[in-house]
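Bug report (template v2)

What were you trying to do?
Predict the complex of my protein with magnesium ion.

What happened?
Run completed; filing so the output is reviewed.

Input:
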Amino acid sequence: MHSKVKMLPVIMLNDVSRSYGVKESKVEALKNVNLEVFSGEFLALCGPSGSGKSTLLNILAGIDKPNSGTVILFRKLLNQLQEKELAAIRSHYLGFIFQSFNLIPVLNAFDNVYYPLILNGHISKSEAKERAAHYLSSVGLADMGYRKPGQLSGGQQQRVAIARALAHKPQLIVADEPTGNLDQVTGESIIELLVDINRRNGTTLVISTHSLQLKARAQRVVEICDGEMTYDSAQ
Ligand code: ADP
Ligand code: MG
């Protein structure tokens, strides 16, 4: 980590609360959460199942909105933005990686990386092709581009999902339990890949996890329990 890149918060959550349901079925998934994440950080978000990790990641990525509090992502206040503007910010700055990979089953690995680049609209087809090939290769899948998700192992599918996120050259990668559906060894190789992306490109990583290995490799650990932040190694 270079200390000078730590100055800019890329994410600022101020008193963020989010509840689901009403009255007796009301669940307070997040309670007055405050969090700043700085450029280049590798942050592991830890907490038991149901503690609010996914809710927090969805809110900081502009996928979901809080009931109260403010969310600033790359110096833009998300609260007042329309879905179209949020989508533009997400596609420009952010790669989201899901526990269940979320690949498109009818497309092969190459096209799963290639088509979102085209849909983004900012780059030519030839550059999109080059990038898709480059990032598939960077996750060790140069020879697997023709395979559909169903013909790939879980770890390989997660690599495709990571290549898809990286191909947009995002400044921030948000990953929701990216090793949650993988066996130990495969999970470790995915963790090494993420560590490498953070070190090599300075990409900011915010990753929710149950993995002790991932927690050990992260530079900062934040813990959440019942919707409240209970620990922050940076505080
Ligand atoms: P985690 O990712 O840590 O497992 P979540 O953010 O998914 O936690 O969930 C936090 C709490 O909010 C849990 O009690 C969960 O049941 C509840 N919750 C999450 N999503 C919804 C939803 N769409 N509707 C109702 N309750 C939800
Ligand atoms: Mg979750």
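What did the reviewer find?
The beta strands are 9-20, 27-38, 42-46, 68-73, 76-77, 94-97, 172-176, 204-209, 220-225, 228-232. Residues 53-54, 176 surround magnesium ion (ligand 2) (CB under 6 Å).
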